[in-house]
Design brief:
The complex is a heterodimer.
Chain A: H1 2-14, E1 39-41, H2 56-60, E2 66-72, E3 78-86, H3 95-99, E4 105-107, E5 122-123, H4 125-128, H5 141-144, E6 160-163
Antiparallel strand pairs in A: 1-4, 2-3, 3-5
Chain B: E1 3-6, E2 9-12, H1 19-25, E3 49-53, E4 62-65, E5 76-78, H2 82-96, H3 113-121, E6 132-134, E7 144-146, H4 156-164, E8 171-173, E9 180-182, H5 197-200, E10 206-208, H6 209-212, E11 222-227, E12 236-242, E13 245-251, H7 264-268, E14 283-284, H8 294-305, E15 309-313, H9 320-330, E16 335-336, H10 341-356, H11 364-368, E17 372-376, H12 380-383, H13 385-406, H14 414-421, E18 427-432, E19 444-447, H15 450-464, H16 476-491, E20 495-500, H17 506-521, E21 527-531, H18 537-542, H19 548-557, E22 561-566, H20 570-573, H21 576-584, E23 588-593, H22 598-601, E24 605-608, E25 617-620, E26 625-629, H23 643-655, H24 665-675, E27 698-699, E28 730-731, E29 778-779, E30 805-810, H25 824-827, E31 835-838, H26 839-844, E32 852-857, E33 860-869, E34 876-880, E35 894-895, E36 897-901
Parallel strand pairs in B: 1-5, 15-16, 15-22, 17-18, 17-20, 18-19, 20-21, 22-23, 23-24, 27-28, 30-34, 31-33
Antiparallel strand pairs in B: 1-2, 3-4, 3-5, 7-10, 8-9, 11-12, 12-13, 14-24, 25-26, 26-29, 30-35, 32-33, 32-36
The chains are: A alpha+beta, B alpha/beta.
Pfam family, one (chain A): Fer4_7
Catalytic activity (chain A): a quinone + NADH + 5 H(+)(in) = a quinol + NAD(+) + 4 H(+)(out)
Cofactor (chain A): [4Fe-4S] cluster
Chain lengths: ~170, ~900
Amino acid sequence: MISHLRTMWLVFVHLFHRKVTIQYPEQRVPLPPRWRGRIVLTKDPDGGERCVGCYLCAAACPVDCIALQATENEEGRRYPEFFRINFSRCIFCGYCEEACPTYAIQLIPDFEMAEYKRQDLVYEKEDLLIDSQGKYPGYNFYNVAGLDAGVKEKGKGGNEEEPVDIKSLIP
Amino acid sequence: MPTIYIDNKAFEVKAGKNLLEACLSLGLDLPYFCWHPAMGSVGACRQCAVKVFKDEEDTRGRIVMSCMESVKDGLRLSVNDKTATTFRSQVIEWLMTNHPHDCPVCDEGGCCHLQDVTVMTGHNYRRYEYKKRTYTNQYLGPLVNHEMNRCIQCYRCVRYYRDYAGGKDLNVFSAHNHVYFGREKDGVLQSPFSGNLVEVCPTGVFTDKTLKEHYTRKWDLTNAPAVCQHCSLGCNVIAGERYGQLRNIVNRYNSEVNGYFLCDKGRFGYEFVNSENRVTQPLIRKRQSEAVNRATLMQHMSTLLSGHTLIGIGSPRASLESNYALMDLVGKENFYQGIPDDLVYIEQKIVDILLSGAIHTPSLKEIEQADAVLILGEDIWNTAPVMALAVRQSVMKTAATHTTEQVAIPLWHDMAVRELVQDAKGFLANMTVTASPLDEISASTMRAAPDDLARLGFAIAHILNPSLPEVPDATDAVRTQAMNISRALQQAKHPVIITGTSCWNNALVRAAFDIAAALDLTEKRAGLAFVMQDCNSLGLAMMRSSSFEKAITSAERSSNVTAIILENDLYRSVPAGQADAFFSSCKNVVVLDTLHNRTTERADVLIPAATFAEADGTFVNNEARAQCSSQVFMPANSEVRESFKWLSEIRSLKTTAGNGHEKHPDEILQALESKFPQFKGISRSAPPHDFRFHGARIPRESHRYSGRTAMQANIDVSEPKPLQDDDSPLSYTMEGYRGPAPSPLIPFFWAPGWNSGQSVNKFQLETGGSLKGGEPGVRLAEQTGVTPVFSRDIPDAFTARQDKWLLLPQYHLFGSGELSVYTEGIASQSPAPYISLSRHDAERAGLKEGDIVTVKSDGKAYSLPLSIHGSLPDGIMLVPAGLRGMDSWSWGGWVNISTVKV
């Protein structure tokens, strides 16, 4: 009896508390920038695709929901021929973002991806690619990777010496 | 066996090894770069440092390079000693100072020895923050990619390319910390063994350019143990698939066969599997819609089978299972080999010799260890490249072995042995029709017509065994040469004679046998190795069927013939006139093949067959070793099936007994074995299809295989059931038994911490030794001690005829392969068709280089440019064999030049 009355009292008191529930979707959820939501592929400062098709995200993915195929342009710059994420399998763990050596794949604060058909949760590269550098502006992998893939010549990157003149014996 | 103490634990190790080999053989992880089991130690990279102690009381010890220190009884060393581990981590830190941060775009990433060793030594944070050295790259041809920034200066590439493989155009340039590994200038790497640089280089300086076209990490490949299809040696390979395409071929270590290395044709010649020219749909020609489904095809086949005389044409490049299934379908008496009579005769001779048990046929490893080699007529550089590499090792190592027997220097001490040996070489006599790159390491060479080479062989046999007849009218030059060679062979402990079928001359085979048998009588273990033409030539020859000419006769005899041709482009195997004659006398032609070719154009019914990568199959190599090649992937197109499955299904139409569907390849082999006693033991060449480890299969995929739930999500978001393979113990999943698999079933080499191919040391009994559980494959011919029956039939000396030339084929490593030319990089290195004459002959006929010469062969005229061959004997015309689009000619016949256009 006392327990019942106590419960009713508690419920009554809650009428005067601040409401936790928000009126979504009229009212938006405040999401922190590091929220692990929808996965995007970002672009380099020069507008090229950041993804170099290294397969590390696919290898890191615990549910194996990333599949891609790397290819190369004439200049030797690698990019994915196709890049597919099956969001109906994705658990938004963020391991792919951690594994990505080029900051290409990023998880963003967006969770509104519900679909009526499961097939529509399969995102291709066109769906994933955004026209932004995301969280890491100014970074271009090819500037620090050493090799010449049309972004910069050998020796022109950060922390690189001019190519060795192999005909010279001067130290 | 000496006992050594590693970190105070006693281990028994093999004497004569170095500490690094001993540690690796014991299963310990010790990092290294410059040492390679096939190339020995030079102590250049300083990565394998360990601490050696004077005795039990010594606590201070000294750092030594384990690859440069011999095993001694009672030796005490420490791998885990603090100073040693610090030393190793400092060395890797130095090596890594200039290594670029490009692993994500490096093809070696994921199977990189440098990555493995860096992790193994614990160097995980880079303190060096200054500028990195860079290099410009070179164009090294269509097969190998160069990215010099990644180099760690271990010198393995030049040691392999120059010292091991005998290449000349790759070298080290510049000095101090600027050394550069490359060519003098951009250009295609000349050695046909350059592809091994990809595996020899511990990092990504040299990578596979064909893989780059469809790049896939090692962990994402579906792998299976396969057998190379491009020559008769049967090198073991690992083939990898992704997204329904064959992606690359890497070496599968087999100490008896290919060891650590492949030739470029084997490594890169896989792209025919992905070709757009593949047969993908059953076709019934001469009807409204030619493409049909399986039910229609079977219905049509049953009408073709009843009331028709069946003729089956087998293939030297199809597996034994498929050939046997065809023989089973058409009946033994109606099964023909699909190669010309002359070749069948020579191959039959070889089979008789091998199966007689009178002689030992050596494996490639034994050829490597031979101390005198005589090559009689065979151009092994082009027809059996890895054998040429083995012969080179025998020549280079014999002298080293002799030297190290006298001086106390172990054989693995590469630089020291080289200093001692200098230019001394073992004995090689290269007796061929034309010059060969092997000539430069030969002690004795001869350029002559096949008959003259055979006469030289008989002359040698006569010296070795005087009861054999003397060669009549032998010239003094031949006598002296025969004397020199026989002396060298007599002095050798393990002489090897090599011959083959590429000269289309049976006297050579008989002469080679006489020499080997004569040597055997003198209590030596002489070896006689044969080179065949295709990957299953010997297997087909062992079925002892008749030649193609007999098939024509038989087709002409009856009016209602249905010919079933198995994976054989007759226009490449027999002269075009004969093929046409055969087709015109057949009422129906059924062809099973993988790629469209001129024979499939003549087919009334065309059935798509699976390539080696899509099929299980057993192939018999040149030493009569039956080896199993496993299916790498199931074709997405279910109309593409193994030939033996199609043929079993067609047979079930005929007999109506049993449906034939569920016939496993091992059951076909058992049937083959019971029918032909010469194949006894062949069903043991691989574990049966129901072999399991505690109920588990062996996975074709690595445990890191990615994309499982996304690969096919674009087609259907629900993942399909994993593919079922009832034909082998391998599975199409990541799950299964990950322990040591039986050696014929190792799908790829990987061990914890060893992602690169170097992990093979975990699969070997000792480094460079045999695989745990024995080498894959079953040898079908062993020496039994039967007294040899010598051949006494010596051919007449070759005489050049007036205006007539002996027609011989010239095989080209790049170009002569039917399948390998589908790889663009190989096709681009293939020569254009030509006709070759000796300089003297050309001058006599008033011909100049490049003149268009018309030659009539088998009623067909061919006009080709003339190429004058400096080393060709007079009276012989050489024509490249098997170039794309070229007919097969009547090799060994005589032709004349009809017209000349300047």
